[in-house]
């Protein structure tokens, strides 16, 4: 019995040992499976028990179980430095989360502000009765588009924007010709700024062109296409859709029946030839044949013949 270092943690074991009959078997048979062969319990938390045991003639030495089971004293468990570190990390984490939420809130506010501004411009340009005010509002819309800082907003409202501009293009008053040209410029600029939506906008333009019965409106659609091609320029922003554009322009050139539409479609084709010569090369022969036919038509005005001759030189 003197081989054991007593503690409260082994009191039940001691009682069981005392109750065993002499000669009933080895002592270690009664030890529970969770206790090592040399059982010793010592902790700062049991200081009072150790003192009592020392008075009773027992030694209170540090034992194996302290390290075997990873038990720590009360002072080791509650170190102020550890608590402070955890608290500081927690506070920094809260600040980071708060900053992130604040940035998200600001972004949402800015996006909402841009959407409201675009919606306001579209509403004013549609409902304003004064021609000069409408023109000024439309120029503000073109400036808004040209900045390109709110592409997400413009994509969200692309259908509404195109519909509003299309209504302006189809107005019948000749007094609004400048306004309608400005609307065509907005369509072309929108196509360039939203280059990843260029295919959708070009398809919309050619669909509207083919469905329109008014030559002056068709002319404005071609003006919009020319503005888009000119704005894109050498950046090759439309390389992935240029074959589609060239095919539609070639079809338009083959079917136009007025000098104005002829000249405007040729301007668009010339822009393709300058920036995408490899695409235009497949349509070169057909384009030249059509222009030759217009050039030798003696019923056409002399001004048109001279213009077609100049376009030949450009090719």
Characterization of this structure:
With 315 residues, the chain is mainly alpha-helical. The chain has 2 domains: 8-77, no CATH class; 83-314, Leucine-rich Repeat Variant (Alpha Horseshoe). Helices cover 69% and strands 0% of the residues. It contains 16 helices and no strands. Helix 8 (158-169) runs antiparallel to helix 9 (177-193) and helix 15 runs antiparallel to helix 16. The N and C termini lie far apart (114 Å). Residues 1-7 and 27-80 have low confidence and may be disordered. Residues 7-109 form the Serine/threonine-protein kinase SMG1 N-terminal domain. One of its GO terms (molecular function) is kinase activity. This is Serine/threonine-protein kinase smg1. Residues 1-25 are annotated as: Disordered. Keywords: Kinase, Transferase.
Task: Pick out its properties.
SMG1_N, kinase, disordered N terminus, Serine/threonine-protein kinase smg1, mainly alpha, ARM-type_fold, 315 residues, Leucine-rich Repeat Variant
Topology record:
Layout: H1 11-19, H2 47-55, H3 65-68, H4 74-77, H5 80-127, H6 131-147, H7 151-156, H8 158-169, H9 177-193, H10 198-211, H11 215-232, H12 242-255, H13 259-275, H14 277-280, H15 284-295, H16 302-314
Helix pairs in contact: 5-6, 6-9, 8-9, 9-10, 9-11, 10-11, 11-13, 12-13, 13-16, 15-16
């Amino acid at each position: 019995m003197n081989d054991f270092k007593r503690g409260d943690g082994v009191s039940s074991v001691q009682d069981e040992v005392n109750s065993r009959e002499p000669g009933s078997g080895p002592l270690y048979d009664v030890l529970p499976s969770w206790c090592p062969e040399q059982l010793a319990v010592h902790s700062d938390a049991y200081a009072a028990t150790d003192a009592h045991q020392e008075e009773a003639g027992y030694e209170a030495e540090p034992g194996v179980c302290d390290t075997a089971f990873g038990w720590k004293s009360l002072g080791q468990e509650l170190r102020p430095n550890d608590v402070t570190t955890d608290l500081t990390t927690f506070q920094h984490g809260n600040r980071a989360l708060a900053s992130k939420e604040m940035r998200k809130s600001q972004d949402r506010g800015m996006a909402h502000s841009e959407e409201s501004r675009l919606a306001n411009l579209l509403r004013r340009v549609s409902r304003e009765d004064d021609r000069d005010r409408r023109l000024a509002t439309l120029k503000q819309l073109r400036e808004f588009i040209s900045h390109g800082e709110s592409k997400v907003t413009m994509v969200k409202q692309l259908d509404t924007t195109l519909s509003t501009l299309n209504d302006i293009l189809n107005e019948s008053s000749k007094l609004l010709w400048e306004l309608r040209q400005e609307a065509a410029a907005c369509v072309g600029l929108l196509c360039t700024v939203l280059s990843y939506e260029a295919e959708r906008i070009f398809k919309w333009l050619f669909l509207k062109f083919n469905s329109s019965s008014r030559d002056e409106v068709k002319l404005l659609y071609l003006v919009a296409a020319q503005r888009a091609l000119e704005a894109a320029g050498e950046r090759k922003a439309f390389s992935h859709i240029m074959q589609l554009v060239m095919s539609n322009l070639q079809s338009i050139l083959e079917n136009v029946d007025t000098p104005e539409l002829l000249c405007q479609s040729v301007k668009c084709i010339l822009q393709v030839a300058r920036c995408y010569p490899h695409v235009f090369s497949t349509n070169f022969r057909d384009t030249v044949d059509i222009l030759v036919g217009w050039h030798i038509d003696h019923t056409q005005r002399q001004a048109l013949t001279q213009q077609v001759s100049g376009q030949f030189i450009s090719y």
